[in-house]
Specification:
It is built from 22 helices and 21 strands. It has 3 domains: 2-54; 61-286, Tandem AAA-ATPase domain (Rossmann fold); 292-510, Rossmann fold. The longest helix is centred in the middle third of the chain and has 20 residues, at 303-322. The strands form 5 sheets. Strands 7-8-6-9-10-5-13 form a 7-stranded parallel β-sheet, with helices on both faces. By secondary structure, the chain is of the alpha/beta class. The termini are far apart. It is globular, with a radius of gyration of 26 Å.
Length: 511
């Protein structure tokens, strides 16, 4: 295949009529040669005929924005423009948001699409998507549909090129979205649509018609189980997806007992085949990033913590001897052990009992003092966040808090200040509130005050610092002072989701 002046393709084929019969204005030249105008529609047609044609975006687009694209970003953008429905599984930190922006901007330029709807977590609507659109497509109009139902409706009706909305907001205004002339839907952190039985999934599926472009993006498409692929595949690749979930589950899992299923050896291949068309780049493939080092720091529990930790563990042993322990009970009891280790345990009435955490805090202070750059501290429990924030304030260490009740505009202000200003020095984050999408490369140290039970949240949270734009070696520090913390960190380091091993872990703790 030869590219002629970036405007046409010269193909050598055994059967040139295959092309001329399907592409108007194409012509046969010489012996088995075919000259085809190099447009996106022509590229789509050629690829549908199993003739691998490149996307014209590679040569006919000026790649606007404040940063030049990496080669892998150009490849990703080209792939997206060639596929109405597609997956982007590029690893976190590789700049897949920018790739999707360039690809969609190209389609807008060509008049192939009219408007773009971006569906993403609440925490990254402003700080990631609106900020990146301003960085890479500043000539486009952008609105964030957030607030009351009436406000969302008004924003969507404004006609902006891009509208950004959170997952749960889609259902609130699905009717006005349906009328909003959105012909490209980008779903970021698409694992939120893995379950095809949820209202969230069904609402999105109703918004998609045969002409709708859909790009679903996540670095972890089936992190916890092969069955997680079902909901994603049913949106992007419905023709090759079993109609019923049970049929797909039987394709990828063995039933061991009434409550336990394990993956089949062929599950990886099955999931790979059903999650197509797809592209994936890892950071190792495409970015020369600094090393990331994982360090465990032992912290001694105070006498008060040891006392209550021991009493709760005795109760757990007695409970296990007297009744069958379910996964729910095991998770609840282990959660209380983790809460004691972190500094505050919640009673059945919802009150919080605080514990002395001077030893753990002393180690954290050492880490902050040793860090060459800013520090992220992930704290899984809200009351422990308050304890830590108060201690840092008392020590005149500037810090901010990111947790579920912090509004989207306020999060954007905090993230911007953290990245661009001297203060705050420390961000205290509830893991689920800022594990996805946000770039926090002003920090090169991540501290886990206590572990999360989600492997996906753990890996995504660590990637906030280890991504494009980082210039320093990154360190992840696990503070561990109790047996349960050590066990949970070992599972996370082995890339095992804690929820899948809850009963085995519980029995190990009791032994």
């Amino acid at each position: 295949m030869q590219i002629i002046k970036n405007k046409a393709l010269l193909l050598k084929l055994k059967n040139p009529e295959t092309v001329t019969n399907n592409i108007p204005k194409s012509s046969i030249v010489g012996d088995n040669g075919v000259l085809v105008s190099w447009g996106l529609q022509e590229a789509h047609t050629l690829n549908s005929l199993d003739i691998k044609a490149p996307s014209p975006i590679t040569a006919q687009y000026n790649w606007p924005g404040q940063h030049k694209p990496f080669d892998h970003q150009k490849t990703t953008s080209a792939f997206l423009t060639l596929n109405h429905r597609a997956f982007c599984f590029n690893e976190q930190g590789t700049g897949k948001t920018a790739s999707a922006i360039w690809a969609s901007d190209y389609l807008l330029n060509k008049g192939i699409i009219n408007r773009v709807l971006v569906i993403c977590p609440l925490s990254i609507m402003d700080s990631a998507w609106r900020a990146d659109l301003f960085t890479f497509a500043m000539h486009r109009s952008v609105d964030v549909a957030y607030g009351s139902a009436e406000k969302r409706r008004r924003i969507i009706a404004n006609g902006s090129d891009y509208v950004i909305i959170n997952y749960d907001g889609v259902d609130i205004v699905s009717d006005v979205i349906e009328e909003g002339n959105f012909d490209l839907i980008i779903v970021d952190e698409a694992t939120h649509y893995k379950n095809a039985q949820t209202k969230r999934w069904k609402t999105l599926n109703k918004l998609i018609n045969r002409n709708t472009w859909v790009w679903m993006m996540t670095g972890t498409p089936a992190a916890q189980s092969p069955v997680d692929a079902y909901g994603l595949a049913k949106i992007v690749n419905p023709a090759k997806t079993p109609r019923f979930f049970g049929s797909f589950r039987d394709m990828v899992m063995y039933k061991v007992s009434n409550f336990k299923w394990i993956p089949k050896e062929s599950a990886t291949d099955t999931v790979f085949n059903i999650l197509q068309p797809a592209i994936r780049f890892t950071k190792a493939d495409c970015l020369d990033l600094p090393d990331m080092v994982y360090v465990k720091r032992e912290v001694e529990m105070t006498k008060q913590q040891k006392k209550y930790y021991g009493e709760l563990k005795k109760y757990m042993v007695l409970q296990a001897a007297g009744e069958e322990i379910t996964a729910v009970n095991a998770a609840a009891n282990m959660n209380k052990l983790l809460q004691i280790s972190c500094g505050a345990v919640y009673t059945d009435k919802g009150d919080a009992l605080e514990f002395d955490v001077k030893h753990r805090y002393k180690v954290l202070r050492e880490v902050i003092d040793e860090s060459s750059q800013k520090v992220l501290v992930f704290v899984p429990f809200r009351h422990a966040i308050s304890i830590l924030s108060n201690k840092l304030t008392a020590d005149n260490i500037s810090s901010e808090i990111i947790q579920g009740n912090v509004s989207a505009p306020r999060r954007t202000e905090i993230f911007k200040a953290f990245q661009e200003q001297q203060h705050p020095q420390v961000l205290i984050i509830q893991p689920a509130a800022a594990a996805h999408g946000v770039t926090l490369t002003a920090a090169n140290t991540v501290v886990w005050w206590g572990p999360t039970s989600s492997l996906e949240t753990y890996s995504q949270a660590n990637a906030r610092v280890h991504r494009s734009g980082q210039h320093y070696k990154c360190t992840v520090i696990q503070l561990q002072g109790s047996t349960v913390e050590k066990h949970v960190y070992n599972l996370l380091d082995s890339k095992i989701d804690v929820h899948t091993q809850i009963l085995d872990l519980y029995n190990e703790l009791l032994d």
